[in-house]
Amino acid sequence: xxxxxxxxxxxxxxxxxxxxxxxxxxxxxxxxxxxxxxxxxxxxxxxxxxxxxxxxxxxxxxxxxxxxxxxxxxxxxxxxxxxxxxxxxxxxxxxxxxxxxxxxxxxxxxxxxxxxxxxxxxxxxxxxxxxxxxxxxxxxxxxxxxxxxxxxxxxxxxxxxxxxxxxxxxxxxxxxxxxxxxxxxxxxxxxxxxxxxxxxxxxxxxxxxxxxxxxxxxxxxxxxxxxxxxxxxxxxxxxxxxxxxxxxxxxxxxxxxxxxxxxxxxxxxxxxxxxxxxxxxxxxxxxxxxxxxxxxxxxxxxxxxxxxxxxxxxxxxxxxxxxxxxxxxxxxxxxxxxxxxxxxxxxxxxxxxxxxxxxxxxxxxxxxxxxxxxxxxxxxxxxxxxxxxxxxxxxxxxxxxxxxxxxxxxxxxxxxxxxxxxxxxxxxxxxxxxxxxxxxxxxxxxxxxxxxxxxxxxxxxxxxxxxxxxxxxxxxxxxxxxxxxxxxxxxxxxxxxxxxxxxxxxxxxxxxxx
Length: 514
Known about the structure:
This protein is of the alpha/beta class. It has three domains: 6-238, P-loop containing nucleotide triphosphate hydrolases (Rossmann fold, 3-Layer(aba) Sandwich); 254-335 and 424-514, P-loop containing nucleotide triphosphate hydrolases (Rossmann fold, 3-Layer(aba) Sandwich), CATH 3.40.50; 344-422, no CATH class. It is built from 17 helices and 24 strands. Strands 6-9-10-3-11-12 form a six-stranded mixed beta sheet, with helices on both faces. A six-stranded mixed beta sheet has the order 18-21-22-15-23-24, with helices on both faces. A four-stranded antiparallel beta sheet has the order 2-1-4-5, covered by helices on one side. Helix 13 crosses helix 14. It is globular, with a radius of gyration of 24 Å.
């Protein structure tokens, strides 16, 4: 029988109202990249959390190098050379990069912290694996992609040889994803074994050796990636054929819903402005996409548009009303719905129930309150309706605490709440980030449905396939300005990539959109 470095045999793990893992067996070979695929809430992160010691299985056995092991906590996992990069990074924002990497295994002499050797080891590892980091930078000041490099270096610093990546590309740019794939191949070539949770079939086909598929907590099967294809994997994952094309009819846009004029937004990280005088319009029945590599002003513009941050100059008009200085609530009441980039910071109250989160935009309406008191029966009924329509999977239905839900189902909850408002303008930032292929298909159809009903949609996305398939017009942002305007049918992914990197044909640049 073939030797495996890790065997998870007949693992079962339940939570209140849900069996997250139901008799699952997973085997990892030395030096392989093994993908773990499944819908949101299929039990992938739970299974890896059992392996890392964050959860204890109700039944089942874990073997390392053929011998049964007990993993009671992450320290036990680290002692067994098992490391994990979590979907939501476990970093201390006010600590430096170096301090985060050595946290818990701090080098010391006579009880005094000695960082010199640690710094040398970190620098050597970062150079060896092309994981460029700035050791003295504060984590709160670095990009998401850089934070992920810090998490990987944490594992390598501890000499882990079994590496778990939980949705590692969900927050990365296309360039960073390509870089990560290369790093993973290099690690596997050195003999490290990688477990790789993802929803992205292209990444599995590109980098994985084998793939194990879970559906609703059950094992569907393990396949050799070289002997399968995207269609077969997607069918195993969701139980039905999936369309990879977005169905969209041509329609004539109507009157202007959003008008942006010379908007300037200051940067929090440096003295330069993050957004440098951009202008464009979004009309009824139109999906306009702001495309660009992370850090080129898209996030800051959306914060200004939705009222989270103040702009320093310019004008924003919604349906003829100047909202440049309006409060967040006023903008919401005037018809803006916002699917935020950071679902934990701006999208949910994590310690509220699912029902309470779904009614956040509506709780003042007569249906949901009387004399200032919340009508919880009506709130739960409303939540049940959205849970059904949007397929939000949660162990205790409306009473599930938002924090306990999978990232993908948290995202579905935000989408449900914001789309159900029936907005004039839907502002969707990375709306499919962290979602499985079936959910992505559903979300894209919902966004197109908004557009087809005469609503305006402003989409911000790093996913070039999404940009090309969903948008009616594409505005590329580079260094705080609009570098070019394109129609999807008249451009290519390669051309967009060049403009996003600042290397586009300047003669074609419009300078401004609209």
